[in-house]
Amino acid sequence: MSQLNNPHDKFFKETFSRLEIAQSFIEETFPPEIRERINLFKLKKTNASFTDADLSEHLADIVYQTEYAGQQALVSLLFEHKSYPEKYPHLQLLRYMNNVWLEEQKQNKQLSVVISTVIYHGEAVWKKLSMIAYFGNPHESLHQFIPQFDYLLFSLNEIQDYQIENFKNDLLSVTTMLMKHSRDKANNFLNLAPFLVDKLNALDAAHQDDFIKTTFRYIEGGINLTQNKLSPIFTQVSQNVNNIAMTIADEIREETTFNNIKSLLQNGASIELISKSFGISIQKVEEIIKKLKSSSN
């Protein structure tokens, strides 16, 4: 599968690929009649990618499998992220489901029931329709020829902040809160400062450095909030959290510089011009050029 370029998709995949976040999300949000039948102890993320070339631009490709209602036959839980309303979500989900079934067929496995789960955090209201509605008003005799299946829709905007704050798992709580407020302006986002300070310090105490890195990379690279704008948070978190945030900020700046220089080189800019434009030595530019050449080989 091609690399995800959308920062929201990337954050979603990095977080929901964590078993404990997926387990906690199911436990906190799924309808009771489904949640109670899912064996969370045997929940396992599949390593296979079920995304084809066309779907790779749309789907984050996260699938878990487990037992359901005590039966050996597996259910597959497809987690899909959306930051904007999708006009025909069933069509994308159906292609994904079909890829799951084709892979199971190749491995001579019993086909699994796929529970498609859409997690949405866009601004517009998601209008959920049945698949049959896509076809206008077909005659009743034609309904038998139209595939009909449902999906679980979780619009984060409809989940209250206090509910997210009270999620039992801090990783899930931070993930969903950040996604929900990812489009807030800086001043509004800072209303989350008490929540973030509390959760980041708790994650630090739990030695969740990797997740804290993922969080700050999303805040700075995906939500585009710099350290200066987040100063009310940094004055109240631990020194370790501060150090992680500064490291991520430096990495993002270096990546941005690297990509900008790459673009200028591709457009024929000279080493001297790049050196002057970025205020770095010619030797540093030459080092970047070497990295570019080695990464293309």
Based on CA inertia axes, which overall geometry fits? globular
Measured between the Cα atoms of the first and last residue, the distance is 20 Å
Compressed to H and E, one letter per element, the order equals HHHEEEHEEHHHHHHHHH
Number of domains: 2
Helix content: 40-55%
Which strand order do you get reading across the main beta sheet? 1-2-3-4-5
Q: Major sheet, described briefly?
A: 5 strands, mixed
Can you characterise this structure?
The protein has 297 residues and is α/β, with parallel strands linked by helices. It has two domains: 7-183, no CATH class; 186-297, no CATH class. 49% of the residues lie in helices and 11% in strands. Strands 1-2-3-4-5 form a five-stranded mixed β-sheet. A hairpin with a 2-residue loop joins strand 2 (62-68) and strand 3 (71-82). Helix 1 runs antiparallel to helix 9 and helix 12 packs across helix 13. It is globular, with a radius of gyration of 22 Å. 27% of the residues are buried. Mean pLDDT is 86; it is low at 55-60. It comes from Arcicella aquatica. This is Rpn family recombination-promoting nuclease/putative transposase. Residues 6-204 form the Transposase (putative) YhgA-like domain.
Describe how the helices and strands are arranged.
Elements: H1 7-16, H2 19-29, H3 32-35, E1 44-45, E2 62-68, E3 71-82, H4 89-106, E4 113-120, E5 152-155, H5 161-165, H6 170-180, H7 186-189, H8 193-205, H9 209-222, H10 231-234, H11 239-266, H12 271-278, H13 282-296
Parallel strand pairs: 3-4, 4-5
Antiparallel strand pairs: 1-2, 2-3
Helix pairs in contact: 1-6, 1-9, 6-8, 9-11, 12-13
Protein name: Rpn family recombination-promoting nuclease/putative transposase
Pfam families: Transposase_31
Domain Transposase (putative) YhgA-like: 6-204
